[in-house]
Amino acid sequence: MAVLSVSRMASRRTVARSVRILGVASASAALALGAAGNALACNINEFSAEAKCDGDKGVITVTDVDPAGVPATVSVYLQNNGADAKKVGEQVVKGSREGTTITFTENWKPNAEYRIHVKATPYVDEDIKPNLVTPATACKTEEEPPASTPPATPTPSASPSKPAEETDTPAPEPSESESTTPAGNAPAPAAGDSNLAETGADSNTGVIAGIAAALVVVGGGAVFFGMRRRGAKSDS
To answer: Closest by alpha carbon to 203, among 215, 187, 217?
Structure first.
C-alpha cells in the first residue's frame, strides 16, 4: 500500500510538471506569434512612392506590398520649405504580396518635394522616409515659339513715284526783276531805239557811240597839251 501511494504521488508530480512546461511553451509561442503577426500585418517599409509621367502629365504612385492586406490610408502633401504647401489627395489601399499601386494625378514640377503619410490603425501612422523628390526633367517640355516671318520685300511699281520734294515743295516766287516783265513777252524798246531799228542798226550802236566820244575827248586833250608846249617854247 505504501509503495502504491508513493507511485501515485510521483506520477502526479510528473503530470503537473509537464503541464507547467506545456503552458510556458504555449504562452511563449502565443507571444511569438502575436509579435510576428503584428510585424507581418502592416509595416511602413512595405510602402513605396514614385513620381512618374503619364504621357505629358505627371502622376505620383504609392505601392503597398503588405501580404495581410490591412487597409491603409495614404495622404500626399506638396512641401515648401519643410512645410505642407497643399494636400494633393488621399486614398485607401489594401496591400498584397504582389503589390497594390494607387495613383495620384499631380502635374509636379522638376525637383519638387512631397510628403507621403500612411495610417493603418493600429499598426502604422507615419511618413514614408525619405520624402519623395521628383525628377529633374518635367513630363512636358516647353515648346519654343515659332520664328517670326521676315516682312515681304515690296514689289516696285511700274512707274516710279515722284519724290516728295517735287510733289510737295511750292513753286518759287518770281524775283522783282522777273515780276515786272510779263512771261513770254520781250521788253519794250526805248523811245530812242525805235528809229535805229527802222534803219537797220543793231544793238551795238550805244557801245560804238561811247567809244567815239572817248576818242574825241582824248584828241581834244592832245591838242590842248600840244598848244601849251608850243606857247612855252615861244616864250623862251
So the answer is: 187
